[in-house]
Write a structure and sequence with these properties.
EC 2.7.13.3; 5-stranded mixed β-sheet; 5-stranded antiparallel β-sheet; alpha+beta; 12 helices
């Protein structure tokens, strides 16, 4: 093949054109010479190409032999890529279309190689994380065979041995009864293993998905004992702090006034006794109410659902606390525990009046949704900042100086016991909206 012209690229079509032109020129020359010598022009026209065809075949084959080798190499590297081997590369020094093809092929191999390395690294990282997570993870195939079990799963279900390939039913036969019962119930849930002295609490999560076109199930078993006990201890500490604070706030002045009353009796200063006794009575009643509220929260019974006419229920509320009503004149019949919901809404309405809102701006709104009732208690007070909104529904959380932190928490308990929910949000223009949703 002729060398490329300096500064220009010699394409394959140009190479073939030059080679064919050269042989045609040579054949024409030989034909003219033979025609002049043999005096038979038509013989010359037939003899010259016949003599040059083998030579033309040889040179064409020789010119295109490197290309054939390149095509075989390309086929081999493509087969290697298909098998996941990206370590091969090609070399082609000519500056033509094949050179462009080789460069593009090598760039593809480099990109695939880098992606493969990144993928392997991510797989190693993921496998390390899965193996060393404290959550037991078990992947089960459609035939109920374990495809994968991490170290925590081996420790929990296999005495430290590998679980892959084993029948999941056989593994469950060797597992605690509580785990089998939790799986039979279906869905997510919690179960307890062990006795009272060595009790372990677990949360079971189940997720189904398709892997390689086949349905698999992933089981996650998370031990909650330490976390729940830590939260339980923190909750009890908070309860004790709140109760101690309230008891001290009441008992300290009661003790002090009782001592002062005794001194007044000794001195014969009886005219000051009624004031001291009234203060003692006030603090004692406050303490009584505080303890009663805690007992009510701790002993909230399951709601006794019954059909209640909303109009009559709202009228009874209106007789106990002032508010404006928004809703239908004849809203219909609801199904709830009237005593519990009345207690809940009275607390919410009283909070609305204590928010700094004008009495006329405290509103109770009732709306019928397709499958539920929505009750809103609205005010135009100061509202709540983000921190208070995030914690206001938690037990024992209060921003009031003498608050117990149980009013909103009790409302949440009542709503959730009815199968509903409660939410707090600030209103545009100021004020708070307490929205409660109950099943219809």
């Amino acid at each position: 093949m002729a060398p490329p012209v300096t500064g220009r690229r010699l394409t394959l079509s140009t190479t073939f054109t030059i080679l064919a032109g050269a042989y045609l020129l040579l054949a024409s020359t030989i034909s003219v010479v033979l025609a002049a010598v043999l005096e038979h022009p038509w013989w010359a026209i037939l003899v010259a190409p016949a003599l040059l065809l083998p030579l033309l075949y040889y040179h064409v084959r020789r010119a295109f032999s490197p290309m054939r080798s390149l095509f075989r190499a390309l086929a081999g590297t493509v087969a290697s890529y298909r098998d996941g081997d990206f370590s091969f590369g090609l070399s082609w020094h000519a500056k033509n279309e094949l050179g462009d093809l080789v460069d593009a092929h090598n760039d593809l191999g480099d990109a695939l190689r880098e992606q493969r390395i990144a993928l392997v690294q991510r797989e190693l990282l993921l496998d390390t994380m899965v193996q060393h997570t404290p959550v037991a993870m078990v992947l089960v195939d459609p035939h109920h065979r374990v495809v994968h079990g991490n170290l925590a799963a081996r420790k929990l279900l296999g005495d430290g041995k590998r679980l892959e390939g084993q029948s999941f039913e056989e593994i469950l036969d060797r597992s605690p009864d509580a785990l089998r019962e939790a799986l039979q119930r279906g869905g997510d849930g919690m179960f307890t293993v062990g006795d009272a002295e060595h009790e372990e609490i677990y949360h079971l999560s189940r997720r189904s998905f398709r892997l390689n076109g086949r349905k698999h199930e992933l089981l996650l078993l998370r031990q909650l004992t330490a976390e729940l006990r830590r939260q339980e201890v923190q909750t009890w500490k908070k309860v004790i702090r709140v109760i101690s604070h309230e008891l001290n706030n009441s008992l300290a002045p009661i003790a002090s006034l009782a001592h002062s009353g005794a001194e007044l009796v000794k001195r014969g200063q009886y005219e000051r006794l009624p004031n001291a006794l009234a203060t003692i009575e006030d603090r004692a009643r406050h303490l009584e109410g505080f303890i009663r509220d805690y007992a009510r929260f701790a002993k909230l019974p399951a709601p006794r659902l019954e059909s209640v006419e909303w109009k009559r229920f709202i009228a009874q509320l209106h007789s106990q606390v002032e508010f404006a009503y928004e809703g239908a004149d004849e809203p219909g019949i609801g199904r709830f525990d009237a005593a519990q919901l009345s207690q809940c809404l009275l607390n919410l309405l009283k909070n609305a009046h204590e928010s700094g809102s004008a009495h006329g701006d405290v509103t109770l709104a009732l709306k019928r949704l397709p499958e539920s009732w929505r009750i809103e208690v609205l005010d135009r007070g100061s509202g709540m900042n983000e921190a208070v909104l995030a914690n206001a529904l938690l037990p024992f959380y209060s921003t009031k100086r003498h608050g117990t932190g149980l009013g909103l928490a009790l409302a949440r308990e009542i709503a959730e016991a009815h199968g509903g929910r409660i939410a707090l949000l600030n209103r545009q223009g100021g004020g708070l909206c307490v929205a409660m949703t109950l099943p219809a």
